[in-house]
Each structure stands twice: as C-alpha cells, then as structure tokens.
Amino acid sequence: MEIPAPATLVLFAIATFLLTVSPGPGVLYVTARSVSQGRRAGFVSMFGIEAGEVVWIAAAATGVAALLAASEQALDMLRYAGAAYLIYLGIQRWREVDRPETTERASSLTAMFAQGIVTQLINPKVAVFFVAFLPQFLDPSRPIAAQVAALGLVYIAIAVAVDTCYVLAAAALSAAFMRSAVARRRSGRIAAVTYAALGVAAAASGVKRS
Known about the structure:
Blueprint: H1 6-21, H2 25-62, H3 64-70, H4 72-97, H5 101-105, H6 109-121, H7 124-133, H8 144-177, H9 181-209
Helix pairs in contact: 1-8, 2-6, 2-7, 2-8, 2-9, 3-7, 4-9
C-alpha cells in the first residue's frame, strides 16, 4: 500500500490533533454524556463519534467528499442539518433534565451511539476537514484510496486518544462534583444551552457566508 511520506503524516497528525482537541459538537456531546451519565455513557458516545468519522473517511476515499466540495448547496444543506440537529439535541437534553433520575439513567446506549454517529456526520467542522482540508495531503499521481486509508488510521488513532482523555476527565469531574441532584440538573441545562447555542452559531455562519 502506497502511503503518504512520513513528513506528510506528521503534518496531518498535527492538524488532526488541533481539530480534535478543540471543543466542537463532537467533543461537547462526549463530554456532556460523560458528565451527566458517567464513563460508560461517555465511551459509548465516543465510539459513535468515531464511527461517524469512519464514514467520512470512507466518503473521502470513494470521492463523495469531492462531490460535496464541488457543491456549495450541498455543503449548506449539511451545515443547516447539523445546526438543526444540535438544537434538537439541546431541547432533548433540557427535557431529560426534568425527567426522573431513573428514566434518564435508562437512556438506551444504542441511542447514544446512534446520536454520536449523526452528530459527527453533520458536524460542520468535521465536514470541512474531510471535504476541503484532507485533500491537501493527497498526491493525485498515486492511488487515492490507499492514501486516505493511511491518513484515516492516523486520524482515528489521534481522535480516540483525545476523546478518551475527555471522557475520563469529564467522568472524574462528574464523580467529584455531580453527586447531588441539583448539580446534575444544572450541568444538564448548561449542556443543553451549549448544544443549542452551537446550532444557532452554525446556522448563523451559513447565513453570513451566503
């Protein structure tokens, strides 16, 4: 398999680290789940996020990302879909706060995993990375799929390491400070408002650009 040069892999690794370590919808989703529902929920959510990223890597390898890059309307639709979904998650999280604690803890792990996938599939930051940024590390004269596969492995390895740190830190914070019902409700409402604010910001950036 023809992989990119070592210098290219290092530069890509640095770019990936800067993307994944900066707070965004994916990090927020994982952190919010870890704080409010513990380490197990955080890791399930993280695996959903990584599964969404694998889909983006496959899209980049098969040329779907290139098609999106060529269509400004498609990118706008993705942006607004992501904004709407983030607002929906904010509303849903706000409603969960007011439910009995036993109901909230019974949230389906499958649903958390699925929400993680969707959150990352329509994450504008990740979309821009794979549609516009990753192609800059590819050599058109060599097999594209092999290069994307190699870069994808680097991306997933770094993303898993970074997100694991977020999960462990957030779960530790939850264990230390979120023992009371009042603290859990407040953290849930803060997460809900932040989700909605990110959605509004994503939609506003699309309106401003157009």
